[in-house]
Amino acid sequence: MEDLEKAILISFDESGSVESALKLQAVGFIDKIKESPLICSICVERLCFSKLVQVQFWCLQCLHEVIRVRYSSMSLDEKGFVRKSVFSMACFERLEGVDDENFVRVLEGPPFIKNKLAQVLVTLIYFEYPLIWSSVFVDYIPHLGKGAPVIDMFCRILNALDDELISLDYPRTQDEFAVATRVKDAMRQQCVAQIVRACYDIVSMYRNSEPDLCSSVLDSMRRYISWIDIGLIVNDVFIPLLFELILVNGLPEQLRGAAAGCVLAVVSKRMDPQAKLSLLQSLKISRVFGLVAEDSDSELVSKIATLLTGYATELLECYKKLNSEDLKQTSMELLDEVLPSVFFVTQNCEIDNAFSIVQFLLGFVATMKCLSPLTKKQLLHVGQILEVICTQICYDPIYRDNLDVLDKIGREEEDRMVEFRKDFLVLLRSVGCVAPDVTQMFITNSLANAVASSSDRNVEEVEAALSLFYAFGESISDEAMKIGSGPLGQLLMMLLSTTFACHSNRLVALAYLETVTRYMKFVQVNDQFLRLVLAAFLDKRGIHHPNINVSRRASYLFMRVVKSLKAKLVPFIENILQNLQDAVAQFTTMSCMSKEHSGSEDGSHIFEAIGILIGMEDVPPEKQSEYLSSLLTPLCQQVEVLLTSANVQNAENPVAKIVNIQQIIMAINALSKGFSERLVTASRPAIGLMFKQTLDVLLQILVAFPKIEPLRTKVTSFIHRMVETLGESVFPYLPKVLEQLLAESEPRELVGFLVLINQLICKFNTLVRDILEEIYPAVAGRIFNILPRDPFPSGPEGSTEEIRELQELQRTLYTFLHVIATHDLSSVFLSPRSRAFLEATMELLLNTACGHKDVLVRKACVQIFIRLIKDWCTTSCGEELLPGFQAYIIQAFATKCCFYSVLDRSFEFRDANTLVLFGEIVLAQKVMYEKFGNEFLVHFVSKDFPAAHCPQGLAEEYCRKLRGADIKAFKSFYQSLIESLRQQQNGSLVFR
Question: pLDDT digits over 904-925, tens only?
Answer without folding.
Answer: 988 999 999 999 999 999 999 9
